[in-house]
Amino acid sequence: MSELAQGQPDAGISMPASIILQKLHDEAPADHFTLDWLMSNLHKQSFGLIMLVLAIVAVAPGISVVGGLLLLIPAFQMIVGRSAPAFPRWIAARPLPTRRLGAVVQRAITTLGYLEKMVYPRWPTPPGTTRRVVGFIVMMLSARLILTPIPLSNILPALVIALISLAYAEEDGLVLAISLLVGLAVIAVDVAIIWEMVHGAKWIKPSI
């Protein structure tokens, strides 16, 4: 492979994400997998599908920070207008533990099976603008996932990213709009909490 592990141009996934995930789960190496392996096994390597898989990685205990850091890469690439995701070679070849993902992926497959009945192409959106907005929201949620060192705090932003990614991959403008609003609400709540903490700290008098 070249210096960058290249994806193909962004496009809707040709088969349900749950089926693709099940195939990945069944064929995953026993000990470790890499982004090289992941990219080579995805039928259409769209931003949406790549971010969906990474969001599921971000839900898994022990490697949620890794998933969040990896999500920053395609999110930034969407903001700057790239047509397909790409990872530096040294990241694409880095091993990630398979065993931590097994139970999370199985639950994700079950959940996606239900969601796929409600997520389908509708409400077309401007491709360029949509890509940048999705990239910005995913980047903000990924930063929140990485910077909040509280147990289980990774679950909410990772799930929102997963829903955004699924809607984006399926070109469902309605679900995408709803999930982006949820993402903005999560970010707004975090900003409000940080503001209150900083504002409250100003009123704390130093002890004598």
What do you see in this structure?
This protein has one domain. It has helices spanning 17-27, 35-41, 47-59, 64-79, 89-92, 102-115, 127-147, 155-169, 173-201; strands spanning 4-6, 32-33, 86-88, 96-97. Helix 4 packs antiparallel against helix 7 (127-147) and helix 8 (155-169) packs antiparallel against helix 9. The N and C termini lie far apart (64 Å). The protein has a two-stranded antiparallel sheet with strand order 1-3. Strands 2-4 form a two-stranded antiparallel sheet. The longest helix is centred in the last third of the chain and has 29 residues, at 173-201. It contains 9 helices and 4 strands, in the order E-H-E-H-H-H-E-H-E-H-H-H-H. With 208 residues, it is mostly helical.
Keywords:
208 residues; two-stranded antiparallel ribbon; two-stranded antiparallel sheet; mainly alpha; disordered N terminus; 9 helices; single chain; 62% helix
